[in-house]
Amino acid sequence: MKKLLQRLFRKPVIWLANKVSSSPQRKAIFSSLSDLYNAIVQGKEDRGIIVPLNMEKGRFIIFSDQHKGNKDAADDFMAAEINYIAALQHYNKNGFSYINLGDCEELWECTPAEAIKSNKLSLLEEARFEEQGRYFRIYGNHDLEWKYLIQQNLYLKPVLGKNLKVHEGLVLQTTYNSKPYHLFFTHGHQGDSKSDGNAFSMWFVAAIWTPVQRYLQISVNTVSDSFDLVDAHNTLMYEWSATLRNMLFISGHTHKPVFASMDHIDRLSKQLLKAKAAQNATLEANLVKELERRSAEYAGKTIIRRMAHPTYFNTGCCCFADGDISGIEIEDGMIRLVKWKKNPECCVRIVLEESPLGYVFDNLI
Questions:
Q1: What CATH architecture applies to the domain 2-263+311-362?
Q2: Neighbours of 321 (CB within 10 A)
């Protein structure tokens, strides 16, 4: 019976969850992101901090949207926990700093005490970065409580360390070809009227969505290998980022990975042109098949074709239903979109897209 109900209600439940939880407004997004970015650049540390980036040696991993819950049937993080811990151990061992980009805990569905108690193992892996001064935590809309010092002191600092600071945003500052460049990080909920601390959305998630999800075991995060700029919020965040000079914007929130302002159909189309030029018939056939599959998936959606500047990146999330997680790496002059896939024997890191950071800077306006 439950499987039948899952099949019947999966699409309408996911549609309703997205409808209630997201309502991005262009004017509000532009205003909110500009206000935050300018405040950080002007040195207002109550909004965020500036961190130097060495282009040749700097190493950062950026994950977001774990939504760590209380280990019940509505906990989206459980399937990805093993993958997440393996990834953090890899990055810590290899000297990366960790930018945790918000919605780290699911505080719309459970209490801070429940979330912390149920996720000690993964939090202790995060604490290893904090112990070495390589941990930066940003709050999102689902863990907005971490904005407040009293909540940090009660719940986070006993696990992550007394020196922990939680920010709204962060800027990595670097120099390339004698010019200053910024990489701006924030969760990305700013300007979304149904996500930015909205009381009704919080009530809906806690009182309606969570019990339904717990019973039907339906996750909204079903695809871990698509790049999606069709999403209205990703599009608006891209359009904001394209108005600024010498800046890349990296966010989370939408759970949909984006690399250099391109969706998956755009990227497959470019790969197909290259395969044809190289007369690689096998690769060409595979790409045609994949494009047909993606085109069917995107049917009925408005595809945006104005993504000209590589100014926008999105981490995706760490709570896909298949247990995969996605994130952005910055390592030794490269920027990458990566996926960690849970296999029966181990967790495997897969590079989905990559580019020299300098090449991205060269193509900015």
A1: 4-Layer Sandwich (3.60)
A2: 16
Nearest partner of 184 among 138, 148, 225, judged by Cα: 138
- What is the C-alpha to C-alpha distance for residues 24 and 177, in angstroms, rounded to an integer? 36
Element (H, E) at 326: strand 325-331
* Residue 313 · residue 260 · CB < 8 Å: yes
Number of H helices, E strands in the chain: 13, 12
End-to-end CA distance of the chain: 56
Residue type, 83: N
Query: Using one digit for the tens of pLDDT, what is the confidence trace for 71-94?
Result: 987 688 999 999 999 999 999 999
Q: Return residue ranges of the chain for CATH 3.60.21.
A: 2-263+311-362
Residue 118, token pair as written in the block: 């149920």
SS3 of residue 222 by DSSP: coil
Instruction: Identify residue 253 by its one-letter amino acid code.
Output: H
* Contacts of residue 153, Cβ cutoff 8 Å, sequence gap at least 6: none
Sites in the chain below the pLDDT cut of 70: 1-24, 74, 192-231, 262-267, 293-308, 365
pTM: 0.79
HEC string of 79-111 equals HHHHHHHHHHHHHHHCCCEEEECCCCECCCCCC
Listed in sequence order, the DSSP H helices in the chain are 2-21, 26-41, 81-93, 112-118, 120-131, 149-151, 157-160, 199-204, 210-216, 232-241, 264-277, 281-297, 357-362
Count Cβ atoms below 10 Å from residue 174 Cβ, excluding itself: 19
